[in-house]
Amino acid sequence: MVHEDEVSLLEESYPWNNLKQKSKRYPRSLEFIIAVAFSSLGFILGVGFGPYWPGRLDTLCIARTAMPSPLTSDVKVSYHEQLFNSTLFGTSIYRQEPSPEVDQAWVDIGVYLGVILVDADKATKAGITKGHITTPPEAGGQYFVNVEVFHQLHCLNLLRKTNYWNHDYYSKLGEKEFVNEDHIVRMHADHCLDALREQLMCTADIGVLPYVRVKDRDRAYPDFPAAPHMCRTFEDIREWAREQQLGSEWTEFLHDPQPGDIVLDQIP
């Protein structure tokens, strides 16, 4: 049975106003300082760590490891971890005896991808000057360019062809680079050797190769497949370059030098 005093207690409203009056009040100046401090902290964290959120890591990486390029606005350059498979006794198609199948494998990765056109604003950002060759102004004034990775792959392929165990095969074919006389082919190969040396030194790989032992052998061997690498996704870059190709007849787009064009005394 409920007593009358208990009923009156249950019906009595709680003194919320008194509670508010008793709560601790901070000076408005302190509240302002706290708000500013949190805002500043948020800004600092946003500026300092914002670029490192997963969605922006690839963009940050390409910005720090490559010169400006028209590709960065047209291709979403992404990265992935990859184990190399260039083992000492491997059977990669790229290292097999000369044959049409081997040559086609090299063609497929882009060794003969050539000239593309780049708009003037993108070319300027990539360091191309107004003196470099463009299409006629009435045709758009775009710049003729090559994507460097495909020149580098072309060079590697030429070094493969000029190796003494491959040279006779390609010399007898007399195609591509071998339509030229031997001293020109050699000059071309020397250029390629130096171009690849520069590239390797420029992008010096700081990964490390571990060593393993092999049964019945008293020495250690580098374990090539065990070294992980962070690689740009090559296929996206290759497909973009393929879509932009002008084809082998691109010289038809050339016009006579205009005032201000770069005209050298010898081939660079």
Question: Which key phrases capture this entry?
Answer:
single chain; mainly alpha; 268 residues; two-stranded antiparallel ribbon; flat; two-stranded antiparallel sheet
Report what the structure shows:
The chain has helices spanning 4-11, 16-22, 28-49, 54-65, 71-74, 100-108, 120-125, 148-162, 164-173, 182-202, 234-243; strands at 79-83, 116-118, 143-145, 211-213, 220-222, 228-232. Helix 8 crosses helix 10 (182-202). It has a domain at 93-209 and 235-253. Mean pLDDT is 81; it is low at 4-23. It has a two-stranded antiparallel ribbon with strand order 1-6. The protein has a two-stranded antiparallel sheet with strand order 2-3. The protein is built from 11 helices and 6 strands. It starts with a helix and ends in a 25-residue tail after the last helix. It has 268 residues and is mainly alpha-helical. 46% of the residues lie in helices and 8% in strands.
Let me know the largest β-sheet: 2 strands, antiparallel
Q: Secondary-structure element order, as H and E?
A: HHHHHEHEHEHHHEEEH
Intertermini distance:
107 Å
Please state the overall shape, judged from the principal axes of the Cα atoms: flat
Strand proportion, as a percent range, falls in: 5-15%
Task: Give the topology.
Blueprint (H helix, E strand, L loop, with lengths): L3 H8 L4 H7 L5 H22 L4 H12 L5 H4 L4 E5 L16 H9 L7 E3 L1 H6 L17 E3 L2 H15 L1 H10 L8 H21 L8 E3 L6 E3 L5 E5 L1 H10 L25
Helix pairs in contact: 8-10
